[in-house]
Amino acid sequence: MTDVVIIHTDGGCRPNPGPGGWGAVLRMREHVREMCGGEPGETSNNRMELTAPIMALEALTRPVIVHLHTDSTYVRNGITKWVLGWERNGWMTSAKQPVKNVDLWKRLQAACAQHQVEWFWVKGHSGVADNELADVLATRGMEEAIATSR
């Protein structure tokens, strides 16, 4: 695994909860892929923030090194700090409550297992070009999902 794929992801809803969208920008050498999608019904910011890296990682066709950038501390902390404890505790939080979005956490774990993923947090709306583009793509995904559901 010598190729490095740099991924920036974003997700959100308007309102939260409500219709939502996700976006991802994947870069490897000179290749760029933009992805987006959405849910026209009721979803949440956190579900869309989780869906973006899942979809990006699942789109990769072979194992690679991934530098994954997200502006969601929920996603970054969840996958790097909390998920193994949740799994060990039967998908319960330390407060003995069921983990929210467990279906997506399991899917993200499986997607990460195919690659060597290093996670980075980036401040949202801070001028990082690919993070800004991921935000635009997330909005497009939400708008397209709403439009096709009419």
Automatic annotation (TrEMBL):
<keyword id="KW-0378">Hydrolase</keyword>
<dbReference type="InterPro" id="IPR022892">
    <property type="entry name" value="RNaseHI"/>
</dbReference>
<keyword id="KW-0540">Nuclease</keyword>
<feature type="binding site">
    <location>
        <position position="10"/>
    </location>
    <ligand>
        <name>Mg(2+) 1</name>
    </ligand>
</feature>
<feature type="binding site">
    <location>
        <position position="49"/>
    </location>
    <ligand>
        <name>Mg(2+) 1</name>
    </ligand>
</feature>
<comment type="subunit">
    <text>Monomer.</text>
</comment>
<feature type="binding site">
    <location>
        <position position="135"/>
    </location>
    <ligand>
        <name>Mg(2+) 2</name>
    </ligand>
</feature>
<dbReference type="InterPro" id="IPR002156">
    <property type="entry name" value="RNaseH_domain"/>
</dbReference>
<feature type="binding site">
    <location>
        <position position="10"/>
    </location>
    <ligand>
        <name>Mg(2+) 2</name>
    </ligand>
</feature>
<dbReference type="InterPro" id="IPR050092">
    <property type="entry name" value="RNase_H"/>
</dbReference>
<keyword id="KW-0460">Magnesium</keyword>
<dbReference type="InterPro" id="IPR036397">
    <property type="entry name" value="RNaseH_sf"/>
</dbReference>
<protein>
    <recommendedName>
        <fullName>Ribonuclease H</fullName>
        <ecNumber>3.1.26.4</ecNumber>
    </recommendedName>
</protein>
<keyword id="KW-0963">Cytoplasm</keyword>
<dbReference type="InterPro" id="IPR012337">
    <property type="entry name" value="RNaseH-like_sf"/>
</dbReference>
<keyword id="KW-0479">Metal-binding</keyword>
<dbReference type="GO" id="GO:0004523">
    <property type="term" value="F:RNA-DNA hybrid ribonuclease activity"/>
</dbReference>
<comment type="similarity">
    <text>Belongs to the RNase H family.</text>
</comment>
<keyword id="KW-0255">Endonuclease</keyword>
<dbReference type="Pfam" id="PF00075">
    <property type="entry name" value="RNase_H"/>
</dbReference>
<comment type="function">
    <text>Endonuclease that specifically degrades the RNA of RNA-DNA hybrids.</text>
</comment>
<feature type="domain" description="RNase H type-1">
    <location>
        <begin position="1"/>
        <end position="143"/>
    </location>
</feature>
<feature type="binding site">
    <location>
        <position position="71"/>
    </location>
    <ligand>
        <name>Mg(2+) 1</name>
    </ligand>
</feature>
